[in-house]
Amino acid sequence: MARQVVCKESELPVGTMKAFKAGDTSILVYHLEDGFHATQSHCTHIFAPLGRGKIVDGCRIQCPFHRAEFDIRTGEVHNWANFPPGIQLLNVVRSEKALKTYRAVVEDGDVVVEV
C-alpha cells in the first residue's frame, strides 16, 4: 500500500470534497465533520464522476447521474441508482456495488491517503 500526500489540511474545508490522483489511482478526498475520508472517484453504477455529485446529510456522496448514494466512510450503498424513472431496468444487470475506500489521515498539516 502506497502513502500519498494529496493536499494541505487547510485546502479542504469541512463539507467539501476534491478529486486527486494518488499514483495511478483517481480518488475523491472528503473533509467531513469527523475528519478526512477518501473513496474511488467514479460511481460503481455506470462510472460517473462522483466529484460532480454532492455530499448529502454530511456523510454520503450522491452520484450526479442516477442519484446512487454511498456512505463516504464505508463505501456501502445507501440508495442504488433511482433516477430517472426506469433506470431500475438497468439495475438488473448493474447490481449494487460498494465504493472502494482508502484511509486518509492528517500528518503535520498534510492530508495523506493510503492507496
Task: Please state the structural category.
Answer: mainly beta
Give the strand line-up of the largest sheet. 1-10-9-4-3-2
Radius of gyration: 14 Å
- What would the principal axes of the Cα set say about the shape? elongated
Give the beta-strand count.
Answer: 10
What does this structure look like?
The protein has 115 residues and is mainly beta. The chain has one domain (3-114): 3-layer Sandwich (Rieske Iron-sulfur Protein), CATH 2.102.10.10. Helices cover 3% and strands 44% of the residues. It has one helix and ten strands; from the N terminus they run ββββββββαββ. It has one helix spanning 88-91, and strands spanning 3-8, 16-22, 25-32, 35-40, 54-56, 60-62, 69-71, 77-79, 101-107, 110-114. The strands form two sheets. The protein has a six-stranded antiparallel beta sheet with strand order 1-10-9-4-3-2, with no helix packed on it. Strands 5-6-7-8 form a four-stranded antiparallel beta sheet, with no helix packed on it. A hairpin with a 6-residue loop joins strand 6 (60-62) and strand 7. The mean pLDDT is 92.
Which secondary structure elements does this structure contain, and how are they paired or packed?
Elements: E1 3-8, E2 16-22, E3 25-32, E4 35-40, E5 54-56, E6 60-62, E7 69-71, E8 77-79, H1 88-91, E9 101-107, E10 110-114
Antiparallel strand pairs: 1-10, 2-3, 3-4, 4-9, 5-6, 6-7, 7-8, 9-10
